[in-house]
Amino acid sequence: MLQALENISAIYANPTRFMALAQKLHAPLWGLAALTMAYGLYRVAYVPDDYQQGATVKIMFVHVPAAWMALFGYSFIFFASLTALVFRHPLGHVAARSAAPVGAVFTLIALVTGALWGQPMWGTWWVWDARLTSVLVLFFVYLGYMALWQAIDEPTRAARAAAILAIVGFINVPIVKFSVDWWNTLHQPASVSRLARPALHADFLYPLLIMGGAFLLLFAAVTLMRMQMEITRQKLRVKQQLGQH
Amino acid sequence: MSYGFYITASYVTCFGPLLALILVSYRQWAKAKADLAALETARHD
After folding, report:
1. Which of A59, A109, A225 sits opposite B6 (nearest CB)?
2. Bigger pLDDT: A176 vs A15
3. What is the reported pLDDT for A15?
4. Which residue of A38, A153, A221, B32 has the fewest C-beta atoms within 10 A of its own C-beta?
5. Rounded CA gap, A167 and A22, in Å?
6. Interface with A, mutate which of B1, B2, B10 (most A CBs under 10 A)
7. Which tens digits make up the pLDDT trace of A138-163?
8. How far from B23 is each of A37, A53, A222, B39, CA to CA, in Å?
9. ipTM
10. DSSP one-letter code for A126
């Protein structure tokens, strides 16, 4: 399995081969993301009201998948940066940089929809509890990561500095995940990840998982498009530099 | 405010930024491709 992954990774280490693959994946990925999202929203429209939360339970179907993608996005950046620094994979930095704005947008969505859910349910838009605060810190880490890429002109130095920041910043991901277990928070503990017996009824669980799948496909589609953009920009930069000499 | 306000606002603040991200990313990619094509054309000329 590991050998197979290494082989695939080696084949697509070549940006030209990767671009050819990305071109083939582009339309099917967007199509699948759109279909899954449409089906997810259709299922959400027929979700019954919750006995405690009433109709506001519908906010869960955008808030929770966005929060999953916020954590997934940063984990993706962490592993891509690690691959770039340790194995010198040429696409590691490209993948990490491309995923950052996507992860940041999902984190912002999780924060805003969380506030919109908190006000009717908790009576407040915001509390400085461990889960909310650690997600806000995650958003700032995303912004810091993107700012670092912009702040350093020399691309190799920028990539290295950003990768180190991404790896150090990963410490916040388990803090976000386990904050509801480690501290007393207003935010509820995990409901879906208890795979043996999820706390959600199937009427809520399946639409939530479908929306989670749709958000994941959307993340993949946008990140892939941004990777194509980054590689094109790199080609452009190299050709411009060659033209100057 | 009614629950409808909070639900509508949640979906708008979810899909609005997502749509903006997709459009901005697409425009940036299209510009990068156009710049590269223009540079290559200029080289040939």
Report:
1. A59
2. A176
3. 79
4. A153
5. 26
6. B10
7. 999 999 999 999 999 898 999 999 99
8. 17, 35, 10, 24
9. 0.92
10. -
Q: Which residues contact A214 (CB under 8 A, 6 or more apart)?
A: A33, A36, A37, A39, A40, A65
Q: Would the CB atoms of A228 and B29 count as touching at under 8 Å?
A: yes
Using pLDDT thresholds of 50, 70 and 90, give the confidence band for residue A237. confident
Residue that wins the pLDDT comparison between A235 and A219: A219
pTM of the shown model = 0.91
Out of A59, A232, A243, closest to residue B7 by CB: A59
A163 in Cβ contact with A77 (< 8 Å): no
| B-chain residues near A47 (CB < 8 A) | none
Q: How far is A1 from chain B (nearest CA, A)?
A: 34
Q: Kindly identify which residue of chain A lies nearest to residue B9, measuring between CA atoms.
A: A116
- Best residue in B2, B18, B45 to probe A by mutation, most A CBs within 10 Å? B18
What is the spatial distance between Cα A155 and Cα A149, in angstroms, rounded to a whole number? 8
Calpha distance A93→A17 (Å, rounded): 17
d(CA A164, CA A139): 17
Closest residue in A to B30 (Cα) is: A229
Which among A113, A218, A243 has the least Cβ separation from residue B13?
A113
CA pair distance B6, A116, nearest whole angstrom: 6
- Kindly report, residue by residue over B2-44, the tens digit of the pLDDT: 889 999 999 999 999 999 999 999 999 999 999 999 988 887 7
A22 pLDDT more than 70: yes
What is the DSSP code string of A134-171? HHHHHHHHHHHHHHHHHH-SSHHHHHHHHHHHHHHHTT
